[in-house]
């Protein structure tokens, strides 16, 4: 059975995407690419979804590409090959995306997690991008994400040696935000997602995330930050946020991510 990405959404607007192929450690196949892409597109487009958690069923996050049928895990018949088979990547989704790495994340299992905004990992999880040991190279834009997260030295270590590290080392080296006992990873990730879903402005988060993942120089970032401030400060949410804080209640945001398209003239 191929690994499917299943999507559920709770009443608080927290989406949970589960890589479900436990018989094969949730290995990645064309089916996974299609279903995960569809789930991320849904999360990006639905204003009712405020935060996203990606995890694996069972005891693994994703054991890497499904090599049982050769090298076809990434490519659809009659479709041009891409080393980034999940579109959009998580960093292009206008919601907070958290990787709850509950177990081993190997190859594309790890490189997909690197595309997320936050990574909570199991302390004893094995993490590796071993493709150079298989005659290939890292995928899913890992030569970009790794350097952004941890710098060239750490990226070179992971990508050019293909060695395996554990979750605790991933935190020490800047690849993950927190290492926890395996059973605590998903609950902790969902708690962060729920806090964001309830308390963080969707429009502000989307604008901040776009800048965070951009490759703009400092001067252009200043321009875009100013543009964002002008958009946000003119909206009723700029009054609602401080009011909710003073009154110690959950804010009632009205500025949705979908509103940004018109307001930014995109």
Order of helices and strands: EEHEEEEHEEHEHEHHHHH
**N- to C-terminal distance:** 41 Å
Rg computed from alpha carbons, rounded to a whole number of angstroms: 19 Å
Indicate the mean pLDDT: 93
Number of domains: 2
Largest sheet: 6 strands, mixed
Helix content: 40-55%
Strand order of the largest sheet: 1-2-3-5-7-10
CATH architecture of the largest domain: Alpha-Beta Complex
Q: What do we call the CATH homologous superfamily of the largest domain?
A: 2-enoyl-CoA Hydratase, Chain A, domain 1
How many beta-strand runs? 10
Given as residue ranges, the uncertain stretches (5+ residues, pLDDT < 50) are none
Question: From the helix content, strand content and strand pairing, which structural class follows?
Answer: alpha/beta
Strand content: 15-25%
The CATH class of the largest domain is identified as: Alpha Beta
Summarize the SSE layout with pairings.
Elements: E1 4-9, E2 14-20, H1 30-45, E3 51-56, E4 60-62, E5 96-101, E6 104-106, H2 108-114, E7 118-122, E8 126-128, H3 142-161, E9 164-166, H4 167-172, E10 178-180, H5 182-199, H6 202-212, H7 218-233, H8 237-247, H9 257-263
Parallel strand pairs: 2-3, 3-5, 4-6, 5-7, 6-8, 7-10
Antiparallel strand pairs: 1-2, 8-9
Helix pairs in contact: 6-7
């Amino acid at each position: 059975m191929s690994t499917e990405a299943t999507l559920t959404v709770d009443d608080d607007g927290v989406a949970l995407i589960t890589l479900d192929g436990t018989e094969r450690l949730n290995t990645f196949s064309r089916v996974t690419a299609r279903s995960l892409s569809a789930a991320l597109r849904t999360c990006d487009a639905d204003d009712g979804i405020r935060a996203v958690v990606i995890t694996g069923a069972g005891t693994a996050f994703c054991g890497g590409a499904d090599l049982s049928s050769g090298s076809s895990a990434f490519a659809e018949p009659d479709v041009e090959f891409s080393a980034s088979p999940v579109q959009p990547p998580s960093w292009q989704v206008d919601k907070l995306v958290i990787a709850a790495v509950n177990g081993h994340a190997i190859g594309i299992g790890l490189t997909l997690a690197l595309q997320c905004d936050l990574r909570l990992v199991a302390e004893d999880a094995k993490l590796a991008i071993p493709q150079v040991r298989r005659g290939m190279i890292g995928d899913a834009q890992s030569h970009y994400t790794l350097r952004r997260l941890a710098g060239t030295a750490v990226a070179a270590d992971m990508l050019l040696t293909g060695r395996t590290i554990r979750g605790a080392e991933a935190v020490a080296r800047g690849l993950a935000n927190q290492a926890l006992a395996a059973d605590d990873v998903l609950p902790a990730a969902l708690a962060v997602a729920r806090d964001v879903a309830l308390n963080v402005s969707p429009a502000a988060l989307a604008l901040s995330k776009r800048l965070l993942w951009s490759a703009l120089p400092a001067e252009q970032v200043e321009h875009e930050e100013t543009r964002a401030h002008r958009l946000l400060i003119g909206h009723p949410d700029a009054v609602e946020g401080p009011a909710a804080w003073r009154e110690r209640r959950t804010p009632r945001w009205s500025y949705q991510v979908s509103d940004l398209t018109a307001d930014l003239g995109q």
